[in-house]
Design a protein that fits this description.
Layout lengths: L42 E5 L3 H15 L2 E2 L3 E3 L8 E7 L5 E6 L12 E4 L3 H10 L3 E9 L2 E8 L3 E8 L13 E7 L3 H12 L2 E10 L9 E9 L2 E8 L12 E4 L3 H10 L3 E9 L2 E8 L3 E7 L9
Parallel strand pairs: 1-5, 6-9, 10-13, 14-17
Antiparallel strand pairs: 1-6, 2-4, 3-4, 4-5, 7-8, 8-9, 10-14, 11-12, 12-13, 15-16, 16-17
Length: about 300
């Protein structure tokens, strides 16, 4: 089974009718539609191989970050018949949806990294197309709503979802980062099109960031930070020469005390794949949870206004 970290459809509490969240300072064109609902509804989606791995992942994730897990269920959530165990985890640092498929996974499911709740599926898909995205899975019904998958320049795939019946996710204590690795050939195009669709803004475009952040100490790379109603996004522009595990993580979680979080993670059986690295007013590490879910964890997230 494909076990890429951060993928596939969500089955979780979400709201179709909640008020739209707009990130502080996000640039909004007059009259431009905003499709985001809030970062508390933007989930990272994770495949695991079995119910046992799901148990281990959920237990260690909540032990590390707090929060709680919803009821586990069996669902058919693709356009073609399939079956998957699914469970949502709500934590103060971001939601997670975990899936253990009982049947083969229809293509291209498993390649999208996150699920973003949108206010209106049809118009969001049209707007994404107009902004340059390819709709690789057209909207379809699942048991509780509608879903679609889009792909942006650089191969960045994500899911849009909308629910028939609204419900409420708690607000987050810290907004996670969607960590997007792209090539220099596609970075500007991706950023331009994502900002156009999301109504967000670039808050930092640092062309000489410390590449020790991605395992290449003594070098520099380009790092772009974006905020929008969909939350935070960190675009890491590289030549693809990345030491393991960098590039495998799709989400970065902000915590108030990295040392305390790593201590909890160690007790919970989480592996440290890349030790603490300090750079730019921030310290971070890369962890692997049971089931193969790789994440970045950081404290003192630096979403400043620098451009160099």
């Amino acid at each position: 089974m494909n076990r890429m970290p951060g993928c596939f459809l969500r089955v979780c509490v979400a709201t179709a009718g909640a008020s739209v969240f707009v990130a502080a300072g996000a640039a909004q064109d007059a009259g431009k539609a905003v499709f985001s609902v809030g970062p508390q509804y933007d989930t990272t989606h994770v495949y695991v191989a079995s119910a046992g791995e799901m148990d281990a992942l959920v237990t260690s994730f909540t032990a590390t970050f707090g929060g709680s897990a919803g009821k586990r269920g069996l669902a058919d959530v693709t356009p073609f018949p399939s079956s998957a165990l699914s469970q949502v985890v709500l934590t103060p640092v971001g939601p997670l949806s975990v899936f253990a498929f009982q049947t083969p996974v229809p293509y291209p499911f498993g390649e999208e990294r996150t699920g973003y709740l949108v206010t209106d599926m049809d118009t969001a898909v049209k707007a994404a197309r107009a902004s340059g995205a390819a709709v690789i899975v057209a909207p379809f019904k699942d048991p509780i709503g509608m879903d679609a998958i889009v792909e942006w320049p650089g191969g960045v795939k994500m899911q849009f979802y909308w629910h028939f019946k609204s419900s409420i996710n708690p607000e987050l204590e810290a907004i996670p980062e969607n960590r997007v690795y792209v090539s220099a050939d596609r970075a500007d195009e991706f950023v331009r099109e994502w900002v156009s669709f999301s109504g967000g803004r670039v808050v930092e475009d640092l062309r000489n960031a410390d590449a020790g952040e991605i395992g290449r100490a003594g070098e520099t790379y380009r790092r772009i930070r974006i905020t929008s109603g969909f939350g935070k996004m960190e675009v890491l522009v590289t030549d693809g020469h990345l030491p393991y595990p960098f590039g495998r993580e799709v989400t970065g979680y902000e915590v108030p005390n990295l040392g305390a979080t790593l201590a909890k993670a160690e007790v919970a059986g989480v592996k440290v794949l890349a030790p603490v690295y300090r750079s730019g007013g921030r310290e971070s590490a890369i962890l692997e949870f049971p089931g193969g879910y790789v994440v970045e964890v950081h404290s003192a997230a630096d979403y400043g206004l620098r451009r160099r």
